[in-house]
Amino acid sequence: MKFLEIARAFILVNRIFELKRGGLPLDLIGKILVIIGSGGSIGFGIWHFFVPEAWKWYSYIEPNATELVLAVQAINVFFSLSLVLFGAVNILLIYGNKSNSYSIIVMLTTTSILWITRVALQIIYPQGSINPALQYGMLLAFIIVSLCYLIPLAIMVSQEIRTKHRKTQTRSFK
């Protein structure tokens, strides 16, 4: 009996929060999660612009290895800018009225893969291992950002499947 009550409450809450903006269905919780995940991506991206100086990366590189210093700088700028842009594009797609489900699903999938990869790397080759709080704090932050993209992605994909299923059933009745 409890299970049915919980299921009904969940369905009711889901219906209350469901939004349709420009014909694009994504519930409020999904949009909030994308904002949080994108804020995390943008924050990590901005922070990463300053990481080499803050952590004195270049002191670990031989001073005569100028090409290596330039390569690390270029990779870090590219990485940092990519995080900022991925976060911004996700926000623009979710709240833009010109977006379609396909473009949002592609972008959420891409961003999810990137963050899942970061979670896997933190598990396999942990950073911050000099301080367990830092190491596991980073892992937790990466998991949270990943979930903030994975959950809306699952919502979008399930809604697309339901929509296609309804269209198929409607055609079969005609």
Task: Give a summary of the structure in a few sentences.
By secondary structure, the chain is mostly helical. It contains five helices and two strands; from the N terminus they run H-E-E-H-H-H-H. Strand 1 and strand 2 form a beta hairpin.
Structure notes:
The structure is a single chain. It contains five helices and two strands, in the order H-E-E-H-H-H-H. With about 170 residues, the protein is mainly α. The chain has one domain. It has a two-stranded antiparallel sheet. A hairpin with a 2-residue loop joins strand 1 (about 20) and strand 2 (about 25). Helix 2 (about 30-55) packs antiparallel against helix 3.
**What can be said about the biggest beta sheet?**
2 strands, antiparallel
Dominant shape = elongated
Number of helices: 5
Low-confidence stretches: 19-24
Fraction in helix: over 70%
The number of domains: 1
What fraction strand?
A: under 5%
Termini, distance in Å? 39 Å
Keyphrases for this structure?
174 residues; mainly alpha; 5 helices; 80% helix; 2% strand
List strands and helices in order, with pairings.
Elements: H1 2-17, E1 20-21, E2 24-25, H2 28-54, H3 66-95, H4 101-124, H5 132-173
Helix pairs in contact: 2-3, 2-5, 3-4, 4-5
